[in-house]
Amino acid sequence: MIFDFEMIDSFYKQLDSKIFEIRKRLNHPLTLSEKILFSHIYYNNQTNPVRRGIDYVDFLPDRVAMQDATAQMAILQFMMAGKETTAVPTSVHCDHLILAQAGADDDLKKAGITNKEVYEFLSSVCNKYDIGFWKPGAGIIHQIVLENYAFPGGMMIGTDSHTPNAGGLGMIAIGVGGADAVDVLAGMGWELKLPKLIGIKLTGKLSGWSSAKDIILKISGLLTVKGGTGYIIEYFGEGAESLSCTGKATICNMGAETGATCSIFSFDKSMSDYLIATGRKEISDFASKNKNHLSADKEVYDDPEKYYDQFLEINLSGLEPYINGPFTPDLATPISRMKEEAAKNNWPTDVEVGLIGSCTNSSYEDISRAASVVKNAISKKLTAKSEFTITPGSEQIRSITERDGFLDLFRKIGGEVFANACGPCIGQWARKESDNNKINTIIHSFNRNFAKRNDANPNTHAFVASPEIVTAIALAGKLTFNPITDTLVNADGENVKLAEPEGLDLPPEGFGDIESGYQRPVAGQKEEKIVVDPSSDRLQLLSPFKEWDGKDFLNLPLLIKAKGKCTTDHISMAGFWLKYRGHLENISENYMIGAVNFFNGQTNSIFNQSSGSYDTVPQTARVYRDSGSGSVVVGEENFGEGSSREHAAMEPRFLGVKVVLVKSFARIHETNLKKQGILTLTFYNKDDYQKIREDDRIDITGLSGFATGKQLTVTLTHSDGTKEKFQANHSYNESQIEWFREGSALNIIRKSNKKNVI
Length: 758
Ligand code: MIC
Ligand code: SF4
Description:
With 758 residues, the protein is an alpha/beta fold.
């Protein structure tokens, strides 16, 4: 069956006339992103013309997807909005809360028990609000979306930063926080600063050990973790057409690691083949009929520098496999240079575990290529030197890779198959290693590798590579092994070389039962009252945040001045803490516990101005909140990089943080903070970061005249009585200033509905 067929049918029926209007309006050759964005614009309040990178625009996405770790908070907020049903087709996916420990069957059973309350809550709200529910074990959100929901030319948002995965099927798919999702679920326009565009032309063709993953690993190195911020990356060229649909999805998925709003490919044969293989021939036919609307205009491709804000060209024919890391996904090393780089940086080169799969790289193509490496290794009497794990992206993929014998091949080298879930990618991994400080190396085919992410050990050096390279390195047990040039010694003591991987884009025997694990919303549940046990430690109903009192912020103590990289994993850790994602009070106990205090280089140890001693971040924040003052958080570049989790914004709000002042923000995190009513400021002069002292009191003035484009003033009062004053920028538009004034964006929706259902 095709989900939401009527919506998709009507979308394609209107596309021609919409594109006609857009041409009239913009009056220049169109990029693919412009065609899709402008065909989803919420015209009611749009001024003409709109400028990329400057104007905020309201959009009407076609659908919303949420995963269980973010859906809880999103739905708890939606319940406060007073709506009876969701305005667009929506799905919820149970993928983040399953601990990888003893293999798929046992782990799933255990998850069903430990997360029972949360799963039951999500399942019943899904019935009440007419939302499709994907049960635990069905698969990871992005893989399920690609297999079932994505369609070329569509637009969706998802409460997960890797939502752009659906760009592999030609969709503008953007990761957002839960409060943004609530806007769309409530039928309001969803606001985004009109992204700028990076055009990337792919020429040539991949061969040998190189794969789609290596394209995005290289691009992450070129753009860095902030280079894509505020941009959509649009791929084209004969190299793009030569990639499989799932390979394209890998590239779009990991575009999130450059900070990009999303990434996209134009509709081509690979997408059509994938749609047909996954039972969606009608959609392939609709898209084929609209093919010219599902790519950029010829003029754009002929003169890309004129139409894209930035332009890059990459030749796939000469592309080497890459290994990125440790600790950041943009530290890109071509495999031929790894020996040198590892020695230079003192990276531990014995690899303890190789992990393949995840939402990024568990397509049939990925698994079949990795399996071909194993098959070849077995035939050459090689065994794996590292532990090896496989996390399939969906039950669909698991069942066909089992059927076609690939999982058995992995088992022959000691591979362990985990549940179809996020597992080790998000710290849901009971690693068989007791020393949680041991300096060690792992390599995986996931997308991010921030410190402590996979196993909570700050000394785990996690590297990212393609599944086939991860497999080769797990066989060798050495990070410095290069299968293109190096040999391995087999059981007979001979030197043998691994053959190049081989695989298939699509399963020759076809996909299986496409809907396994899906729960269709049960009709007639609208009246059902959702009950949350007040004594639960997993779920807690929300109370609205207070509106701004109209006064400047005066005499606020500094809570923490974070040093260096401060991702959402540092702000609100995952792993163990995922279990509190539906309970704001409990999860707030992890606020900033991973961030490094500038003044003592330690984590979760900050100066408490009230007691004069060092304390934890959540405890100190609570003291400042309860004393009525609130506090200020200071940070450096790309603050809040990584996840879409709005807990990283709700926790500080709950703990009384009033201002977050940084050198620069990551897009999703900045919006999340604004939506929860926290004042987000950036240093006008980045060197002013140095002026902030541990025991400072901070004033933010000018708030009564808070207006778009107008700076606010920061005054520091140091403990020696001296003062320093400087200007701070903000990126609020008029409607966002209302979110601040009202205490949160949700308060505005609540008021407009004039009723509160909980
Ligand atoms: C991630 O990859 O970091 C996550 C876990 O999927 C997050 C979502 C979350 O924190 O729940 C993301 O990417 O948005
Ligand atoms: Fe899950 Fe990891 Fe993908 Fe995030 S990146 S959705 S944690 S598999």
